[in-house]
Amino acid sequence: MTRCSPISVGVPGAVLVAVLVAVLMAATAAPAVAGAPMQSLYPKARPLAGPVFVPRVPLVPVYYTARIRPRPRPTAAIAAVATRPSRATLALSAPGLRRSLRPHLRPAGLRRNPAAAVTPIPVAAVRSQPATVIANGRKGAVYRDRAIRGQQVSPIRGRLAGCRVARPVKVSSISGVVLSPAAVIDCPTAQALKTWIQKGAKPAVGRLGGGIRSLRIAASYSCRTRNSKPGAKLSEHAKGKAVDISAITLNNGLSLSVLKGWRNPVQGKILRRMHKAACGPFGTVLGPDANRYHRDHFHFDTARYRSGSYCR
Asked: What is the pTM of this model?
């Protein structure tokens, strides 16, 4: 019986096997080496020397600067205010106001001259120089009625007999409605006009155009006869008891003209309501349908008749 044993390879044979294995591996790796890139795919390192990277900072507009801050009040000015007996005179170079906005105290001992308040004045002075006439009058509420704003005027005497107003007032606004120009009338007429504005004119307009802003006064006090006819009776205008209104201006600028709006289908309804509402507060109410003298305005006066108000 023979015994099998492994093939033994000598030293020359081992060298030969190693050479064959190396040749086979070189043949297999040749295509991959041929297609390889010429240089490394890794990014090159940033050079240490060169421009320094500066991040971009967005520019944001600044709406506030320290220049609008108030400057501190000078110490000298503060000392002057603290030590002054009546007022302080700040240096011209100091910022801010040069004098206080607070009103000064009224000097003691001032009294109104009662003789100057009742001195009659010609009617021409009322028209041409109202500031001189009203210098001694009261401003603000008329006869303690806050709704009627104006000034009390000195008694007026005209050139015609009976052409006078004992206690006239120059009314600039009533219940927030401006009278343009201001009307020179007596107090009862001002009260009647207030009643008509509050209960007649404002409800008639309602919210149209934002409400009434002003009344265009065509005439108030005027020393003349009725319709300016020679020899006619004295007009109620000569007594300060009448006022003529030619238009009503609304807050949005729309003007309700008596001349142009009386026949208008929309404005005419409003103007006729105003005309009708005046009957009662006033003794005489005339409009475009009365006669040709009143086609462009309303005539209101406080003359009273036994038969009641006269409205046309």
From this structure: 0.56
